[in-house]
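Appendix B, record 7
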Amino acid sequence: MPVLAAPAEQSHDTRIGAPAWREATWAQTRKAQQVTERCGREAVAMWQPEESVGDPNVAHHLCRAAHIQPWRFRVEMLRGGGHVEKPPPGEGVTLWKCKMKPPAWHARLPLPLHRDARAQQTAEVVLAHARGARLVAARLGRAQHQINGQVWQLQRRREATDRRLSEVRKGLLVNQQSVKLRDYRPKSEKIPDKADSMLTWEKEELKNMKRKMEEDMEKSEALLKALASCRDALALCCKERLQAVDLMNQPLDKVLEQAGRHSWVNLSRAPTPRTQGQKTPPPDPAGPYTPACAAALNEARLLLVESRDTLADMAKNEAEVREQQTQISDRVCTSLAQKMRETSELKERLNISVGLMRGTIHRCTKFQQEMYTTRGLIKGPLSKAHLETREKLDRPMVRVYQRHVGTQLPEATRLAQGTDKLQRHISQGERNLNELLTMQKNLTWNFKCKKMGFDVDHSVARLRQRQSHPHVCYEQALRLLHERDQRAQRCAAAAAAAAARE
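Structure tokens (predicted):
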């Protein structure tokens, strides 16, 4: 029969299991609970922002109220005494019925639609790049259009300036023709006068105008080359941007309207009032608005400002040169006309003097002929047979007085004295007549010189009036000058040959 041990002292704990075994189970349970809570917290943290985790310093029953308080609508008092409730700022979905706006939650793990979301995100990035490229292309195209407009205006202005420069050069040729034509005046009419001074002054002024217009042409040529280079750069950048938007069917002007900007160059005015559009983004080498595009647009902006100033200066200079050239030509023509009037007055005075002297010469010649007749009568006949009775020395009274020596008659002495005095008057009359004839010859030659000078000045005035017509171009004036020079050379050669033959 087995022997039974004595029972141990009875304890208050009625549980049969061992404490170690029970503690191990409890420890495992607590560990499982901790793992469960940690995993739950981590799982929840994957779906909500980090700041939504409960604060250990705040009571548990107050955590939710403190967490939801920033989500609620805010009450703002109006000036009139009322109030209005507005949602808090920031991202999130506005719950108007609950008057709350929870913040946007962001998942930290890829969702089942992660592939589609990433594809959609990539498509959005590509679409945003294409939109940016299209906007940049539109703005580059608009800048290129403005550059083309400035090039066209500059070319038109250069044509106007070139026509004015041609008129100035033609004016120099006309001045040279006028000077050469006035050299055909007689020597007595070549005394320097105000007309010559006006022609010299016109030549200097036209040279200054020519230099000014040539500087404008050189400046505009350099600006035109810069505009053409900028236009090519804009076209290249626009072509590169358009490669990304070939499949997007939308006009570029519509893109500018959607962007709220008519141009990045800020020179062309929008047809209708518009709100302030998008600001110019910073250049991005990897984006649609590259530094090359920024440099091209900046250069276009500077060139457009410079082109506008240059066009204004060229138009102003062209108008000033046209007005100044007209005034100078009018003053020269006025001086020539006044010289012609003075020459005409002197010519008329010379003509009157020649006419008066002609009458005096006729009277002197008639009186001289009478003096010659008187001298012949005083000298008497050439033959003794022709003597009259009253002239013979055998008259009774003469014979009586001639017998004595102291009683000589004064007849022969008086005849000799009268004949000598008459001869002296005849010689003086001949000298006076020769002097009158010489003076008449000089007056006649001076009259002819005045007439030639008047004709030359009239020819110069007609030449200037004819050459200043807009239909006469620079080449025609130059050809006329060469023909006149060739004619003068042929005349000089003919005169030299005639002198050599003599």
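Remarks on this record: Strands lie at 74-77, 83-86. The two ends are 193 Å apart (CA to CA).
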